[in-house]
Amino acid sequence: MARRNIYQVGDSTLRQISKPVTEFDDKLSQLIDDMIETLVYADGAGLAAPQVGVLKRVFVATFDGGRTFIEAVNPVIVKTKGSRTAAEGCLSIPNIREKVERPRHVVVNAFDRHGNPIVLKADNFDASCFCHEIDHLDGILFTDKTVGKKKGSK
Ligand code: NI
């Protein structure tokens, strides 16, 4: 395993749309292990592959109060319910926390590193985190969605 560099806001990589994973191989496994190590070291809640410069649809996140880590390959939000507004931060945008409205509950279909389908159900903080990470795969940063922010402002 190896820690990877976390790309910071302003890098155009963070604005790209990531591609679906097609090969569930050792390289993918290595990427996921490295992302978890990087996340733990940075003491974050979630990390998406484009944040380490890899434009693939993969994220890792803490889950259930940090008791476990989840990995999600080719994640798709299939169900949302309710909403909540809470402050978020991002390892790619240091020292900024802003409020974002997200679903209170989400169901995400994804795959594990071996290509097995998984269903992730998340509430509250975990739901916000999953949505935040999936946004990264589409080049969206939480600061794009800050509540009360004027459209078009940066
Ligand atoms: Ni982020």
List the helices and strands and how they pair.
Elements: H1 26-42, E1 46-48, E2 58-63, E3 68-81, E4 84-90, E5 93-102, E6 105-111, E7 117-123, H2 124-137
Antiparallel strand pairs: 1-2, 2-3, 3-6, 4-5, 6-7
Bound molecules: nickel (II) ion.
Description of the structure:
With 154 residues, this protein is an alpha+beta fold. It contains two helices and seven strands; from the N terminus they run αβββββββα. It has helices at residues 26-42, 124-137; strands at 46-48, 58-63, 68-81, 84-90, 93-102, 105-111, 117-123. The strands form two sheets. A five-stranded antiparallel β-sheet has the order 1-2-3-6-7. A two-stranded antiparallel sheet has the order 4-5. The protein is globular and about 45 Å long. The mean pLDDT is 95. The structure holds nickel (II) ion (NI). The site of nickel (II) ion (NI) has 5 residues, from helix 2.
How is this structure best summarized?
The protein has helices at 26-42, 124-137; strands spanning 46-48, 58-63, 68-81, 84-90, 93-102, 105-111, 117-123.
